[in-house]
Amino acid sequence: MTDHAHPDVAAHDAAHDAAHHGHDNSPEAIKKEVRRYMLVFGALLVLTVITVAVSQLHLPTGQAVALALFIAAIKGSLVAGFFMHLISERKFVLYVLVLTAFFFGVLMWGPWHQRHNAAEVYPGYEKGAVEGSSAAPGGGEDHH
What we know:
Blueprint: H1 7-21, H2 27-55, H3 61-83, H4 90-121, H5 125-131
Helix pairs in contact: 2-3
């Protein structure tokens, strides 16, 4: 008789596989997962109602946008974390976040650096940018 034919060893192997691979298909585990999804769904519904309610407050535009973005960020985090299973991928998500922040910094630094260098290399660059708002010769005046 092999080790896997014994019920205790088979149960141990199943528990070991579930613990190491994250897949537990027992009825209790499935009920727990369904409950978690339903709670997240309920939170998304509540946040949607809050979003609609906030839109009825007629806040100043800046405050309304900031509040809407805050609520949307929470909702997006719930969807990404639970429905897309990213909550268990913390190391990868952190790596992507750092990489995104790095490239955002590069994109923000580029135009600033170009403008700074142009002011040093081309005398009058800043003066022309402030005085002449139009690219047309003569400062944007109509010469017909």
